[in-house]
Specification:
Strand order of the largest sheet: 3-2-1-9-10
Helix content: 25-40%
CATH superfamily of the largest domain: ATPase, nucleotide binding domain
Structural class: alpha+beta
Number of strands: 18
Order of helices and strands: HEEEEEHEEEHEHEHEEEHEHEEHHEHEHH
CATH topology of the largest domain: Nucleotidyltransferase, domain 5
Number of helices: 12
């Protein structure tokens, strides 16, 4: 009894982190998902003091005075600002594990399969700086397959398309690894930007990123007849400079989002073309699995299926599949050793 209490005080619980451009999710061993918060940080420019992190900072985006900088420290799925990412991760870890242990946690972190050595090294350096006793990196497509309860250790090909905030990635996995993958730095953020640009050019109407995100979520991409919607949008008239309101319909969204969606589907097709013939039959039989926040765009799965002539389906928890997969690896050390990124690639 005394030994178990002493061990609890010495050791932190192992933690898995899905560090995304838009949201950061944390899974604690034995507890499940303990945090899901925006990857955002607000800083006072004068003294560098942190004024808000997560939801509090996201609410400040686009609304701050000149002395406050509200930013997202990750861009295109990787670290863009080392110091602010360090502060953000340190804050999140303290939030889920407020009692500091003598021995830090083991961290399992998801990374894009196309991440460079420098980008991977930056993650490892931050993890060690916040007190991790050991760090393991796992390719996000592999984690997503595990999180979706698809076979990862068998000689079976699974194709997964992860559309996040900063990157879209298509990968075919088999035997605990990524066989072929492609990624583009075009995803949910670009959808928001193209909505903003469209309204500027067509209506001389200006909105912020948060409004663009609400439009995307509400109206979708390719609505069915029964789900056609209209949405009133508040913004600024660029001719008069005054606040005003316009109406946008779901039927306009395909025209607006086509450039982004086409780039994503082209990347999916390129990955299929590179698929080894031995795995092509598995992909034809099982279809393609969509994960990530961007995959929830209404009508996107139907459009991709119509383009590539294969079944396309959302995984059961598209927003959570990566962190759930990383969390399962905390419980299975043997599988973690088999799938983690090897040291010579960091």
């Amino acid at each position: 009894m005394l030994k178990s209490v002493f061990s609890f005080k010495l050791l932190s619980r192992d933690i898995a982190i899905d560090l995304g451009t838009t949201n950061t999710l944390i899974y604690k061993k034995g507890e499940g998902i303990v945090l899901n918060a925006p990857s955002a940080l607000a800083i006072d420019k004068k003294d560098g003091k942190v004024l808000g992190i997560g939801f509090e900072a996201k609410q400040m985006l686009g609304k701050t005075p000149q002395n406050i900088l509200a930013i997202r420290p990750l861009q295109d799925g990787v670290i863009a600002d080392f110091d602010t990412t360090h502060k953000m991760i340190e804050y999140f870890l303290h939030k889920v594990q407020p009692r500091k242990a003598v021995i830090g946690p083991r961290l399992v972190i998801g990374v894009p399969s196309q991440a460079t050595k420098v980008e991977k090294r930056a993650l490892v350096d931050i993890a060690k700086a916040v007190g991790a006793r050991k760090v393991a990196l796992v390719a996000e497509p592999v984690a997503a397959v595990i999180g979706a309860d698809l076979p990862i250790s068998e000689p079976v090909g699974n194709m997964i398309v992860d559309i996040g905030g900063g990157t879209s990635e298509a990968a075919i996995t088999s035997l605990n690894g990524v066989v072929i993958s492609n990624s583009i730095r075009i995803a949910g953020d670009e959808m928001d930007q193209i909505i903003i640009q469209y309204l500027k050019e067509k209506y001389n109407f200006f909105i912020g990123e948060q409004m663009a995100e609400r439009i995307k979520i509400t109206l979708g991409y390719l609505p069915i007849k029964e789900d056609k919607k209209k949405m009133k949008i508040r913004g600024r008239d660029l001719n008069t400079g005054f606040p005003t309101e316009i109406e946008l319909s779901s039927e306009q969204m395909k025209e607006i989002l086509d450039p982004v969606v086409t780039a994503i589907v082209d990347m999916v097709e390129a990955t299929l073309e590179q698929c080894p013939p031995e795995l092509a039959g598995d992909v034809m039989e099982n279809g393609i699995y969509l994960t990530g926040g961007g995959s929830c765009l209404k009508g996107l799965d139907r459009y991709i299926s119509s383009r590539i002539k294969l079944p396309v389906k959302l995984v059961p928890e598209p927003l959570l599949s990566v962190v759930l997969g990383l969390g399962k690896l905390l419980e299975d050390h043997r599988l973690l050793s088999a799938v983690e990124v090897t040291p010579n690639t960091i």
